[in-house]
Amino acid sequence: MGGLLGRDVLPVLGHVGNAGGGGMKPLCVSCGEVFSAKRRKLGYHLCLDCGDQVAKQRRFTVVPMNKSNYVMVSDPAILKQLNPKRTMQ
Questions:
Q1: Is there a single domain that holds both residue 40 and residue 67?
Q2: Strand, coil or helix: what is 46?
Q3: Number of domains in the chain
Q4: Across 56-84, average pLDDT
Q5: Which of 7, 22, 26, 55 could be cross-linked to 40 through a Cys-Cys bond (beta carbons 3.0 to 4.6 Å apart)?
Q6: Which residue stretches of 1-89 are H helix?
Q7: pLDDT (mean) for 35-64
Q8: Do 38 and 73 share a domain, yes or no?
Q9: Structure pTM?
Q10: What is the pLDDT of residue 5?
Q11: Do β-strands 24-26 and 15-17 pair in parallel, antiparallel, or remain unpaired?
Q12: C-beta atoms surrounding 89 within 10 Å
């Protein structure tokens, strides 16, 4: 019982044991590399390199509309059309 929970489940959860008994080291869920425990406490599950790759893939912004709600825009042409103060040429 202790072997299954101690060795097989922890890497799946994104942690690896520390031989010194100082706690657990977080593992990146994408590449499996160990990353900073401070980063894990902030809620990240990816190392800096993998997190940078994911951030580059997402291309959108959230725009507050006048007297309305927020709109998620992924096309720069639509974003330019939403600006009421732009100059028409």
A1: no
A2: coil
A3: 2
A4: 80
A5: 26
A6: 2-3, 9-13, 37-41, 48-57, 76-82
A7: 89
A8: no
A9: 0.47
A10: 38
A11: antiparallel
A12: 3
